[in-house]
Structure formats: C-alpha cells, structure tokens
Amino acid sequence: LFQILRIMEDKSKGMAIAGLLVAVGLVLLGLCIKSAIDGFKDKERVVSVKGLAEMEVKANHVIWPLMFKNIGNDLPALYVTMENQTKAIKDFLSTNGIDSTEVSVAAPEIIDMKAERYTNENVAYRYNVTCVLTVSSSKVDLVRGLMIRQSDLLKQGIAITGGDYRFSTQFLFTGLNDVKPQMIEEATKNARASAEKFAADSDSELGKIRTANQGQFTISDRDANTPYIKSVRVVTTVDYYLKD
C-alpha cells in the first residue's frame, strides 16, 4: 500500500511539473503572438505622398506645313502654276538653310466645284487646288525665323494659307529619355521631404519605402503663345513605413 501511495505521489508531482511547463509554454506563445501582432501593426503604419517635378525645355523638332491654294477654270494651267510655286517655295527654303531631305510635297488636293452636290452652279471658278509642302526639321530656331519671313513668298505671289486644323505647325520635344533620370530623382526627393514632414508632425520616424509608382510623364506647351517651349511634368507616388 505504501508503494502504491508513493507511486501515486510521484505521478502527481510529474503531472504538476508538466502542467507548469505547459502553462509557461502558453505564456511564451502568447507573448510571441502579441509581439508579432504589434510588429505587423507597425508595418501597416504607412504614409502615402506625392512628389512633383517640372522642367521647361525648348522644342527640338518642328513640323511646318506650308499650304497654298489656287483657283481657276483651266486645270492644266493651274498645274503649271502649282509647279512653279512649289519650286519657288523649295528655293526659298533651301536658300535659307533647309535641306531638301527635310521637305516633303503632298499630292495636290483638287476640288471640282461643279461636281459638288451642294455648290451653286454659277460659281466663278470651277477648280480649287490645295498644295502642301511640309518641313520636318530639328532646326527649330531657323524655321521659326522663316515663318516670320513668309512675306518674302507673298512678294512672289504665293500666299501661305493658315487656319486649317489639318495643317497646323507642331513643335515637338523628343529628348524625354535624356531628362527622365534627373526628373525622377527630383520627384522622389520632393516626395521624401513631404513624408519626413508628415512623420515629424506625427512624432514618428520615417521607415523604408513600401511601394513606389513613377507616374506618367506629360509634355505640353508652356502657354498658347510659345508652343516652342514645352513643360515636362511627372508625379511620383511613394508609400513609406512609419515607426516610433
């Protein structure tokens, strides 16, 4: 009987020790879970900021359509006039520094006024011929100067016509890849400055980047009066972690 009681006492002690160990393990497990939850919450504390970078650049390519019209009743005569005027415009361009490879000539657009359904049959001239020469060049300043000197062509009886949306002058900037790195760096710095200010105001410290989005570059005219000066713009969005 004494041996049985002793065995039972030993088993009780073992069970008590095992229970104590289990309790300690549960406490440690709870602490680990709490720490993990707190760490997860800290990681989810983020601030999202935007950084803007803008730059003004000069257009480095120009497309200049020179459109002129002729009207008359004798189509072959109109063709000869068109050929002479086209040659005169080419001579004007080449004399002033525009290479022949930078000039293209479109097929003439001929409207037979008497063939038009809704045209008055008593029109004075039957044919309306539109001709277009297009200068495509990287000599932007030179072309701008020639645009001002269109009166030289007017003296030869050639009137360059404007107002047609199909033949408007375009100033382009094709050097985006050259300015991208600088602008992205500036936008990112501006975003970080905003995030640091936010962190300071909230008694926090700025952590690592969580996500970043470069944004899309846009190129537009600086204003309506100077289309040869472009405004390049990009906005980056950056999410930073915050920590105490």
Question: How would you summarize what this structure contains?
Answer:
This protein is α+β, with helices and mostly antiparallel strands and 244 residues long. It has helices at 2-43, 75-95, 140-148, 151-154, 176-201, and strands at 46-58, 61-72, 103-105, 109-112, 127-137, 170-172, 205-213, 218-221, 229-243.
End-to-end gap: 65 Å
Described by strand count, sense and barrel closure, the largest sheet is: 5 strands, antiparallel
Q: Oligomerization state of this entry?
A: single chain
- Helical fraction: 40-55%
Q: What is the residue-mean pLDDT, rounded to a whole number?
A: 86
| Secondary structure category | alpha+beta
SSE blueprint:
Elements: H1 2-43, E1 46-58, E2 61-72, H2 75-95, E3 103-105, E4 109-112, E5 127-137, H3 140-148, H4 151-154, E6 170-172, H5 176-201, E7 205-213, E8 218-221, E9 229-243
Antiparallel strand pairs: 1-9, 2-5, 2-6, 3-5, 4-5, 7-9, 8-9
Any overview of this molecule?
With 244 residues, the chain is an alpha+beta fold. Helices cover 42% and strands 30% of the residues. It has five helices and nine strands, in the order H-E-E-H-E-E-E-H-H-E-H-E-E-E. The strands form two sheets. Strands 2, 3, 4, 5 and 6 form a five-stranded antiparallel sheet that branches. Strands 1, 7, 8 and 9 form a four-stranded antiparallel sheet that branches. The radius of gyration is 39 Å and the shape is elongated. It starts with a helix and ends with a strand.
